[in-house]
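Write out structure tokens for DUF2180 family protein.
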Amino acid sequence: MRCYDCLQEARSDTTGIGVCSRCGLATCENHARVRQVRVDHQNGLGSSYGRIPARRVVCHTCDMAETAH
């Protein structure tokens, strides 16, 4: 699996380390961003969340789109 962003930059030798959870493209360690997300649990009529956050991998492009204000 090759990193999509590296292929766009004409670098085809970079191996992908994960898949973006937003767009599904392969991403390498230079273009990947690991974010923490809160895990919600249904609790009766409401919900609660765990104390330990989960990890989510996104590519550089999706990370910029999600964090742009």
